[in-house]
Structure prediction request, 229 residues.
Amino acid sequence: MTKTFADLGFPGRLIAVEGLDGSGKSTQVHLLLKWLEQQGCRVFFSEWNSSALVKSATKKGKTQNLLTPTTFSLIHATDFADRYERQLVPLLRAGYLVLCDRYIFTAFARDTVRGCPPDWVRGVYSYAALPDLTFFFRASLEVSLARILDNRPVLKFHEAGMDLHLSSDPYESFRIFQGRIFEQYLAMSTEFGFTMMDANQRIEEQQGLVRKIVAAKIDLPRFCSAKAR
Prediction:
């Protein structure tokens, strides 16, 4: 699929955020969500790996380290397909702004780094339309790692790529794994027209720019009540 939801004639618009773990993208999309709600917009938020259909299975598989790269990929693909069919497409048809914390590009990057063939991964998600606007929050590995450790004392097994046996040191494994994912994102950035954001900047500076870009590229009056604006 090479067309956006706008290209396909959907009345709604989809905005996705992508970035490394610890890049601050989730903070930025939640701030954007609150701002759009304050404008009186018809807006919906969806995040990666949140479908009730597979969430418990994903948690069990990760906890017990049962997932091969292929099953890891397919279980997330099932999660996405369920949300795409039951949430994203119906709401976009109903004229909503939909915000996604991660979209298919997360799978393209992570699954490829885990060893899945790139063409196969893309084929799994070939039914999905592209976002109308995709932000990529570009943060250094040191900043990303520091942000994660600010919130909890240790890295999670899979976010550090420990299942790939890159290093026995979780911090070094994180740097290698996330560094490889970063390279995948950069390779996709031009192909899919990512809007690149300097995620090393202060939160307020980033959010101000995000709002300006959204207001410039999305016809917000179509989605937001005049009274709230």
The CA atoms of residues 160 and 171 lie 7 Å apart. The chain has one domain: 13-221. The beta strands are 13-19, 43-47, 97-101, 133-138, 195-198. The radius of gyration is 18 Å.
